[in-house]
Write a structure and sequence with these properties.
The protein is α/β, with parallel strands linked by helices. 37% of the residues lie in helices and 10% in strands. Helix 3 links the parallel strand 1 and strand 2.
């Protein structure tokens, strides 16, 4: 179904026409379209996860001026920080790191381990450490179009996505949406791209260290992500009306 979300006044985009144009386009063509259309208002989000090198490589070779955003929850694996340094240097990226306004240590002192406090605690954890920093990044960097490496194979929610959508008034673009696991591995092999180092230890979907587990080949990789039943990190879900009001009142 076409999005009924209101589009920002600074955008002039026919979503249906864009999706028809890009339906069978290669990822490079989608990225080039986005870069041409949005210029310095375009960003890529990355988690420096298991297969993040694919989208980072695609953007680095197709639209290298694209802003790259990574959200640092304060609970990333040490290997993730080192992997990020490796890819930043290899691809010549300038990554904009954003974090919660309250440190992880202060959060635990005041609230305890929110991720262990049921659905409400998880929702609060995601809001503080992922959703608010990402919305702040998008506002401060002047972003109106946001690319992400989501794929339909990953979760039930992602099966419903289109290559070009609206999310909270911004254009959301998914260049590798139709890539299968085999497509990802073939691209990585073709371009000699590294996996996150923890992949060798059985971690196939990598997030915060307190809520990521290794999985076996017969399991869905997202089964290793135990922060919330939806297996979504919160960044790629539309805001609720209450969240929108909260961010609006905070100038976010």
């Amino acid at each position: 179904m076409p999005s009924v979300e209101p589009i920002r006044p600074d955008l002039d985009l026919d979503l249906e026409a864009a999706n028809r144009e890009l339906e069978d386009a290669r990822p490079e063509e989608v990225i080039a379209w986005a870069a041409s259309r949005f210029g310095d208002r375009l960003a890529l989000s990355t988690s420096f996860g298991a297969q993040s090198a694919v989208m980072l490589h695609l953007v680095a070779k197709t639209a290298p001026a694209t802003k790259v955003i990574c959200i640092d929850t304060g609970y990333l694996f040490p290997e993730t920080y080192r992997f990020a340094e490796e890819l930043e240097k290899r691809f010549g990226l300038q990554v904009h790191w954003y974090a919660a306004t309250m440190t992880a240590a202060r959060q635990e002192a005041l609230y305890g381990k929110l991720w262990e406090q049921g659905p409400e605690g998880v929702e609060r954890y995601l809001r503080i450490n992922k959703v608010e920093p990402m919305n702040r990044a998008l506002e401060e960097l002047g972003i109106t179009a946001w690319m992400a490496g989501l794929r339909r194979e990953q979760t039930e929610h992602r099966r419903t996505l289109r290559k070009v959508m609206l999310q909270n008034g911004r254009v959301k673009i998914h260049p590798i949406l139709s890539f299968s696991d085999a497509d990802v591995e073939a691209y990585m092999a073709e371009h000699d791209l590294p996996h996150h180092p923890l992949v060798a230890e059985g971690y196939r979907s990598i997030g915060d260290h307190h809520s990521t587990l290794p999985t076996t080949p017969d399991m869905d990789p997202r089964e290793g992500r135990i922060l919330g039943k939806s297996r979504e990190c919160g960044l790629h879900l539309p805001l609720s009306e209450d969240q929108k009001k909260s961010y609006k009142s905070s100038s976010l």
